[in-house]
Design a protein that fits this description.
The protein has 179 residues and is of the alpha/beta class. The chain is 36% helix and 18% strand. The chain has helices spanning 5-16, 35-48, 73-76, 105-113, 126-132, 150-167, and strands spanning 22-27, 53-57, 78-79, 84-88, 119-124, 143-146, 173-176. The radius of gyration is 18 Å and the shape is globular. 37% of the residues are buried.
């Protein structure tokens, strides 16, 4: 018996359609010492699974975004290895705000700039991430970085509360640095 034609069409679409990179929002905690090491560990975990990662660093300690990025994001991505790309992006979200205060359109531009990426690891403040996640918060799990210090736990909780109230995120991941 022959398979149904709509099943064949679905199979062909699956073969030739490029998967969209999965967005992993990473709430920046600028007070956290060793936050960069946690980002490295997270990237390493994705690499162990054979995934290609684009790290978009819009955190408070990141370098300011290049003016070239406003014209050509792909030209600003630094290749750290064949599997890892890096984009310094502090201030990039503000350049992509629409009339409603959303920067959701930036996600499509990032995916176009790095079509080979399986993971978009987007590090930024809770306020910037809320602007980016407008309309897609139900499908992502933001990652909160902290350690055992009270100020960092409070910062992680504040980021979670902000994203919950402003972007509608309901599920979070917590990455805790050991001491």
């Amino acid at each position: 018996m022959f398979p149904r034609s709509d099943d064949q069409a679905a199979g062909l679409r699956a073969l030739f359609t490029r998967r969209r990179a999965q967005l992993v929002p990473l709430v920046d905690n600028p007070l956290l010492d060793g936050g960069e090491a946690l980002v490295d560990l997270l990237v390493g975990a994705y690499l162990e699974r054979g995934l290609k990662v684009l790290v978009v660093d819009a955190g408070a300690r990141a370098p300011q975004v290049s003016e070239l990025a406003l014209l050509n994001l792909a030209a600003c991505i630094e290749r750290l290895s064949p599997q890892v790309g890096w984009l310094d992006a502090r201030g990039l979200v503000a350049h992509h705000l629409d009339a409603r205060g959303s920067a959701a359109g930036l996600l499509g531009k990032l995916r176009e700039a790095a079509p080979q990426a399986d993971i978009l690891l987007l590090r930024g403040s809770a306020a910037e991430l809320a602007r980016l996640l407008a309309g897609s918060a139900a499908t992502v799990r933001p990652v909160l970085l902290t350690d055992g210090q009270q100020q960092n736990l409070t910062s992680a909780y504040a980021g979670m509360k902000w994203l919950s109230e402003r972007a509608g995120c309901r599920v979070f991941q917590l990455l805790v640095a050991g001491q």
